[in-house]
Amino acid sequence: SPCGVADREACRRRDFSAFTRVLDFGRRSHQLVKMEFAMHIYGFILKVLSFMITPILAVRAFFVHQKPLPPIKSEYIKCSASELARKIRKQEVTCERIVRAFIVRCREVNPVLNAISENRFCNAIDEAHTIDQMIDSGVKTEEELERDTPLLGVPFTVKESCGLKGMRFSVGCTLRDGMKAMENGAAVEKLVKAGAIPILVSNTPELCCSIETYNFITGRTNNPYNRFRTSGGSSGGEAALLGSGASVIGIGSDMGGSIRVPAMFNGVYGHKPTPGIIDLTGHFPLDPSPDFQKVLCIGPMTRYAEDLTPMFKILAGDKASSLNLDHKVPVNNLNVFYLDNCGYPLGNNQPTREIKKKIHQAVNHFKSKSCKCEKADLPEWDDSTEISLASFFGSILKSVNKTLNNMSIKFSLPHEAVKFILGAPTFTLATIHFTALLTFKAFIPKKRREMYVVEAETLKKKLTNLLKDNGVLLCPTSAQPAFYHGLFPLKQTLTCQAFLFNILHLPATNVPLGLNSQGLPIGLQVVAGPGQDKLCFQVAEELEAAFGGWVPPPSSY
């Protein structure tokens, strides 16, 4: 070797490092062989069925005429919430005019989308009129209005499960049909106190248990970019309204990608916060377990990136001051890590070529800003599906009976399965499927579940050390864009890369990056270290400026 003494030592270390990587690859390959056989047979079956059924649904969609969404007529619909609030404070437009514009848009799109569970349009108009009278009176200066009620007069929408006083609170479950929310959920109340006006509650899957928004009470919600495709779940009603221009900001909840995946499917922004920042009081379902309450998060959903920070600041309340939300890290000081794959998911649902391309384009954008960018070296990422399923169904939710009893719902899996087969179900297939995973601990043996729980802790420590207070991870929100209605049993693992960050308790934001060749929204998620939610928002704004953000859905097909 031409190396000197010092160089020979460096070469030796490099050779040893390469050797250990080979051993690690061998260990990972051996693990794959040993992985839960039943799970991966199940995954293979899902892939085959999806391969067979998807073309049939595509042909059907091609030959059946789609009713297009009406074009957006009001100029105010395309304003951000922050801009609308400024216009209202400056009396450039009345609050009532803004609210009426969004109500008109809701009435235009809902016959196509079926995203509204119940509205309060008349009450919202009355509240808008009262706000206009207050502003006209001059009892507060413009500065005082901004300080005390930063979202004064801005209409917003609420996922039904988050609780809006006087509105439907069945959360898609027939056993709760007719129930109304007695009070505003804590998050909703904070927005109301900030001056925003709730105009409706949006549709959810039954008990928020599915990645497709469908239930036996209000039916199925359609995607504004293609009504034959899903809006996602469980915040699918919210996302569809935002994507169609019928809402500008909304409140959703995220237990396994339930904000971020619908946000991607509908081309908008959705943030899962660091756990413990936003109060969960008033949400249904809500398990009392502390571990569960670290996985479930309420968060903002917006059409424009600039609204994430002000909305989050309001929702965080007193905790906002400790997060330094107004302090931005210089862009060239950001450390940007990325992953463009989904590990080894069930059914081998790897990101589409167009999603991978968008991730690389985003990375190249940050390289052009002199950021340090590199692919993350995280072997545990390969097991993200198993880590998510084992941690949630095998550790966090320990007892199906206890969990359902806490919801005051009686459920017998064998009984409900038979009723479903006979065509007389009380619960949807999604809820039965969710309960089966919970009952059988995601079909993962106990020793393997324990291994994956340990692996989750290892991955969390690695990511926390890697990201610190100036690092972000760019990775897929979902491996594929919105799928055809009815395919959700075959597509459950699409959400596991989003689900993983609920398990790891890290903040994550979906960022839309335009439409694919089929006209469907695609994007990525931005992940930051614990308590570094502001980095997610900063990167979202940077990418919105670079790629354009929300793209209005077509008004003709």
From TrEMBL:
Domain of life: Eukaryota
Catalytic residues (positions): 159, 234, 258
Keyword ATP-binding found: no
Keywords from the named record: Membrane, Transmembrane, Transmembrane helix
Transmembrane segments: 37-63
InterPro entries reported in the protein's UniProt record: Amidase_CS, Amidase_dom, AS_sf, FAAH2
Pfam families, per database record: Amidase
Keyword Nucleotide-binding attributed: no
Domain Amidase: 98-536
GO CC annotation, single: endomembrane system
Similarity comment: family membership: Belongs to the amidase family.
Protein name: Amidase domain-containing protein
Organism for this UniProt entry: Bemisia tabaci (Sweetpotato whitefly)
Taxon lineage: Eukaryota, Metazoa, Ecdysozoa, Arthropoda, Hexapoda
